[in-house]
């Protein structure tokens, strides 16, 4: 089943706001595969480009990881066996392993985040995440998250 979440639906689901909301749209949710795809449009107006790096702007890797984690959090909110009310629960990012940065992300790029849940143990989850620009892998990591009471 495919679903699309626009920015309004993302804002309703997540507590993040500018400049820390790093997902613009969810284009696919596959419940059976426990997989989600979303993206961020990277523009020169992003606040972090002022200092990273002037003259050669590159999106910080830590923000790419955070965007993948936010996309994974949205996945957890959409899966039938996990779904919860965002008014009473939060998804906390709890770990990163095997993070690799393959290519820089620069202004004008559209970064797609492809996240698949690997395992669930009680209220903790492990996910495989990829970031792609023009179908080329720019970053990847395994992420861990926990669903907690607000």
Strand order of the largest sheet: 1-2-4-5-6-3
What's the CATH topology name?
Thiol Ester Dehydrase, Chain A
The radius of gyration computed from the alpha-carbon positions, rounded to a whole number of angstroms, is: 15 Å
Q: SS-based structural class?
A: alpha+beta
Overall 3D shape: globular
What is the total domain count? Answer: 1
Number of strands: 6
Per DSSP, the total helix count is 2
Please tell me the overall pLDDT.
93
Order of helices and strands: HEEHEEEE
Strand content: 35-45%
Helix content: 10-25%
The CATH level-2 architecture is identified as Roll
Distance between the termini: 29 Å
- So what's the CATH class? Alpha Beta
Characterization of the model:
- There is one protein chain.
- With 150 residues, this protein is an alpha+beta fold.
- It has one domain: Roll (Thiol Ester Dehydrase, Chain A), CATH 3.10.129.
- It is 17% helix and 41% strand.
- It has two helices and six strands.
- It has a six-stranded antiparallel sheet with strand order 1-2-4-5-6-3, with helices on one face.
- Strand 5 and strand 6 form a beta hairpin.
- The chain is globular and about 45 Å long.
- The model has no long low-confidence stretch (mean pLDDT 93).
Features:
17% helix; single chain; 150 residues; 6-stranded antiparallel sheet; Thiol Ester Dehydrase, Chain A; alpha+beta
Describe the structure concisely.
This protein has 150 residues and is an alpha+beta fold. The protein has a single domain, classed as Thiol Ester Dehydrase, Chain A (Roll). Helices cover 17% and strands 41% of the residues.
